[in-house]
Amino acid sequence: MAQEKPNFNVVFVGHVDHGKSTTIGRLVYDAGLLPEKELTKLKEEAQKHGKAGFEFAFVMDKFKEERERGVTIDLSYKKLVTNKYAVTIIDAPGHKDFIKNMITGASQADAAFLTVAVQHGVMPQTKEHLWLLRTMGVEQIAVAINQMDTVEYSEEKFNKVKTDISALLKVVGINPEKTTFLAISAFKGDNIVKKSENMPWYKGPTLREQFDLFEPPKKPITLPMRMPIQDVYEITGIGTVPVGKIETGIMKVGQKVVILPGRSGKGIDGEVRSIEMHHEQMQEAMAGDNVGINIRGVGKKDIARGDVICDAAQPATIVSEFIGQVAIINHPTVIAKGYTPVFHIHTAQVPCQFVELISKIDPKTGQPMPGVPDFLKNGDVAKVRIKPIGNLVLEKQSVNPHMARFAIRDAGATVAAGICIELTEKK
Q1: What's the CATH number of domain 7-213, 3.40.50.300, 1.10.760.10, 3.30.70.890, 3.90.1150.10?
Q2: pLDDT-derived band of residue 328, with 50, 70 and 90 as boundaries?
Q3: Hey, how many other C-beta atoms are within 10 angstroms of the C-beta on 354?
Q4: Torsion angle, CA of 291/293/299/305, rounded to 10 degrees?
């Protein structure tokens, strides 16, 4: 079978109205992924809403309320196959109220495009977006300087914005010398998929070419083996088969493992007897692989979704409490001490209580703000002490970022997202 291209997640961030959605819509259209009649329909709809020229943005802004307000609220996903990758594009909101949806997008991203409109340049949020990308561990960033058609494709105006953003990149610890700055007009289609005739001075890649210039994500195979269980099956002739994606490390047949927390809450020891992927038996599998495995001495009643299969020599931690850096995205009121929503961590869903609000984080600097907050509201990023109600397997961002991220859901919606920065092991 043809080798599948590696998956690559790219998030588009940027200030409201700087043209992120239009950029992605244009990319999708120019790459031939949007049928002509679909575009015609979107054009009519754009005019109906008094938003002529917004049709490309409408490709991503599927929601009625967004169309009427002309802003991106939720995360939208699109697939694009390039020469090198199977790219998932994440369009993250730039609007102030919705900035924190970005956390959810950024935490899944291998790379990011920061979209900046040439005539507005750096905005207060541009800095916040950069800090957020860095906090969530996005290392690769390209800058798309958009709306070049509004400044007559001026090289001078492009360079001024480039200089301002370079200064900002240095502040957040990104080397501007190694960063690609693209000169584009999403609305007119300059340098999106086709090279522009309007900017002979621009020697850089098109937006589409830039995807393939990003480094492939490093498979986290040097970290200890972790496989969160997605489901457990009973298969005749084999026995109990937990399935899931190996998040980090390498799993081998014969490897000693411990399953945490397990039904007992103290962990279950076992040994990998067989590994199967795409209906083929393997001797080993690695980070990123979805596998079904059989473990000697482990039955269906011992384990469940949310348990984590770990290398016995370097197991993960079951936590009694932890400190999370949390971004409040979408809570109807405010969050105070004592709040107990459900945390989604790898495949586990565990109720957890906010036992202490330690400090808010200043989005402009990434540093804690003075004073202890009484409550948190949408848009706040804060350090919080959290206590799981039940057994939870979690690791610190500094130890294993793949096992440190979480989303917080309440009444069917994602209210916050974050990462674990410190933890206390359960004795």
Answers
A1: 3.40.50.300
A2: confident
A3: 22
A4: -20
Which CATH number is 226-311 given? 2.40.30.10
What is the per-residue pLDDT across 344-379, written as a single tens digit (0 to 9) for each? 888 888 999 999 999 998 766 778 899 999 999 987
Architecture of the domain made up of 317-425: Beta Barrel (2.40)
Query: CA 153, 189, 83, 92 torsion: positive or negative?
Result: positive
SS3 261: coil
Paired with 226 in beta bridges are: 248, 310
Please write the tens of the pLDDT for every residue from 222-247.
999 999 998 898 888 888 999 988 88
- CA distances (Å), 397 to each of 135, 248, 387, 421, in order? 10, 13, 17, 6
Whether the predicted model's global pTM rises above the 0.70 cut: no
List where CATH 2.40.30.10 sits in the chain. Answer: 226-311, 317-425
Contacts of range 276-281, beta carbons closer than 8 Å, 24 or more positions apart: 276/241
